Amino acid sequence: MRHFHKALRLHGMIARDIGIAIMSGACQPGDLLTGEIASSERLEVSRTAYREAIRILAAKGLVESKPKVGTKVSAREKWQILDPDVLAWAFENEPDLDFLRSLFELRNIVESAAAALAAVRRSDEQLRTMRRALDNMARFTLATEAGRQADQDFHAALLQATGNPFIISFTTGVNAAVNTTTLFKQRHRPLPRNPIPDHTRVFDAIAEKDPARAEKMMSELIRLALQDIPVYRRQRGVRARRKAR
Question: Residue 84 falls within a domain, yes or no?
Answer without folding.
Answer: no
